[in-house]
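TL;DR need structure tokens for one chain.
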Amino acid sequence: MATTPRYLIGGGEKLSVEVARPPRGFGDKAHPYTFSEAVERLSPQLENVKNELRSLPSLACPNGETVVGITLHPTYLAKSYYRQT
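>> reply
TL;DR here they are.
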């Protein structure tokens, strides 16, 4: 069985070219809502959730616990977008 030679290229990194990298600066974030708008919108919804959870039968709350799912705005899904506080 004939095999073709596979040559190793010494110093192959010299044959490569530098690739321009995109800028990494984090400019001002365009927030979809102000904090006060978010509070105004979410407060009644959270009150409704709280009332619904309190009205659940104990059989639906093992160990007295419940689980709630929320959906974040896609703008805030990246880890770097979260506040440090």
